[in-house]
Description:
This protein is of the alpha/beta class and 544 residues long. Helix content is 45%, strand content 10%. It folds into four domains: 3-86, Hemocyanin, N-terminal domain (Up-down Bundle), CATH 1.20.1370.30; 100-257, Malic enzyme, N-terminal domain (Rossmann fold, 3-Layer(aba) Sandwich), CATH 3.40.50.10380; 265-446, Rossmann fold, CATH 3.40.50.720; 449-516, no CATH class.
Amino acid sequence: MTAAREHPIGYEVLRNPQLNKGTAFTEEERRKYRLEGLLPPAVTTIELQVARRRAEIAALDNDLQKYLVLSDLQSRNETLFYAVVMSDLATYMPLVYTPTVGEACQKFAHIFRQARGLYLPISARGRLRELLQNWPEREVRFIVVTDGERILGLGDLGSGGMGIPIGKLALYTACAGVPPQYCLPVVLDVGTNNQALLDDPLYQGLRRHRVRGDEYMAFVDEFVVAVQQLYPNCCIQWEDFASLNAFPILERYRDKICTFNDDIQGTAGVALAGIYAALRLTAQPLTEQRFLFLGAGSAATGIAELISRAMARQGLDIAAARRRNALFDINGLVVTSRTDLADFQKPFAQYRAPISTFVEAVRALRPTGIIGVSTVPKLFTREVIAAMAEINHRPIIFPYSNPTSRSECTAEEAYRWSDGRAIFASGSPFPPVEIAGRRFVPGQGNNVYIFPAMGMAVFATEAQRITDDLFILAAAAVADQVTDADLASGLIYPPQGRILETSLRVTERIATGIFELGLARVPRPADVGALIRSRAYRPRYREI
């Protein structure tokens, strides 16, 4: 092996995002690694570098431009990227992930600058292990993978969906301390049914319609087998798959490997966390709640099932608990007489006559909360909110669809139409609202409260499996971080400025559960929290 490969020098160092420190290289390091003359002579601290990048980003007036500046920084200097993001998570999370990542995915082929992650096309079927071996890191502990079919509420974006795994894994690190070198974003490219992409000369994915059925599942199987062979301690997070594939994939692997689906289980966890916090305001037990979902896909049924399991843990029969969670989709209320139901929807089918409008369903079922996961904006109308406020003193209103343009209602609409009585949380951020002299701070039911902590707990314990019970633990742990002062302002999730502190506490609760369930591959330490803190990443420059 050549000396240059053993000891990177010059531009090899500056062009390696894991090694690059930019102007923070000391004079000694500049001599040692032959960087003299390649950098301006002044040596700066990482704090000054962060200040420079923050000023650059603040001067921009377009969120997509800010996203691109951060993306370029991540490709050049990974440590500085995380130092910037972690310096003000409340400001930078919406730029790194939702809502900005939605626009980035839509325009991915047009803003593409530098490859990141792995693209595994179905045209390479039979060689996926070979392609995975091209990844330079020899130990991968987390893969976030999408097939790009159901990106946020935006639909089929094909290979442009890569922005989602990249953004999710950035939050694994920034929000919970998972070391970034163990993270791998992946797109399974099985084609796209989005004709606009197929007609776009800049589109970078396979130019074919989506593969379905046995051929699709055989491709997914090959991917999972290759990952297990190369990275036996790896956890696979499935992201933004359409419902027709999301549930079968999760059921196929959940009892065999360490895996979870964030749209099904992560979204469910954060919704349950919001419900736990909301019930501190209503002073009602979980087992007496009734929820009506606008939407009947993977997110809705995932939330409904986790709520049902949480109710069962508090003594309610599981079948009775499921009856307290009703679904409403484009064809109306999900009832037992319908012949168009998928298997995953049937446990929540109501023994009722068909109901064709959502407001009628609200009046008939008298839910204590409505949860929007339809990806169709403005369906929580004034009439719907008013009906909820008539039925409940403190109606729970959760329009969770994102990005913001897809939200079922705005925070102001929910508060104003309920005379300020709504307990509100949304999937995308909304600004504070003032009504009749009272200021409301809307909470964001963002999965970021759940999946990074789950990842860090799996990393620290080397968990073999992830169960629904762990998501119930995570939900309770998130709700426990909401203070009485937060609740008084209407906030039912911890402020995003405290997300790292919150995540580490949630991580400790999940990790304790992993040990108690006998799922850990490492011995249980006397102090689980100390184990978590010792393994958490901090953005500091290190010796090469």
